[in-house]
Amino acid sequence: MLNIFSREGLSGDISHVTPEEALKMISEDRNKNIVVLDVREPHEFNGNLGHIESAKLIPIKLLPSKIDELEAYKDKEIIAVCRSGIRSYSACVTLKRHGFGKVHNLKGGMLLWKKSGLKSHI
C-alpha cells in the first residue's frame, strides 16, 4: 500500500504556508507566478467555506488524470488548498512526484482561512 504521507522519493520537503502567508504571497504576486490549486469537490468549492479568488479547481480524485493540464504551471509556485489541509498535502505529494518543484500546502485549509477572517468567494 502506498503511503501518501511518506516523503521518500520527493525532491525536497513539502512546504506548509499559513493562510496569512498564502494571502501575502498571492497579494504580492505581480507576475502571476502563483497558482492556487483547490482540490476539493465542486460542491465544497462553491459551498459555505467558499474559495480563494482565481483558484483553479481540480478535485483530488481527478488530479492524477489531469496532471497534464497543470504542465504549464511547472515553473510557478503552486499553493494547494482543500477543506482542512489533508487532501491538499496529498496533492502536493502528487505534484512533487510529477516534477513540480515549488508546491506549498495551505495549512488548515479553507477552515483555517475562514477562521482567520480572510475573504473567500462563494
Please supply descriptive tags for the structure shown above.
disordered N terminus; five-stranded parallel sheet; globular; alpha/beta; 5 helices
Question: What do you see in this structure?
Answer:
With 122 residues, the chain is an alpha/beta fold. It has a single domain, classed as Rhodanese-like domain (Oxidized Rhodanese, domain 1), CATH 3.40.250.10. The chain has five helices and five strands. A five-stranded parallel sheet has the order 1-5-4-2-3. Strand 2, helix 2 and strand 3 (56-57) form a beta-alpha-beta unit. The longest helix is centred in the C-terminal third of the chain and has 12 residues, at 86-97. It starts with 14 loop residues before the first strand and ends in a 7-residue tail after the last helix.
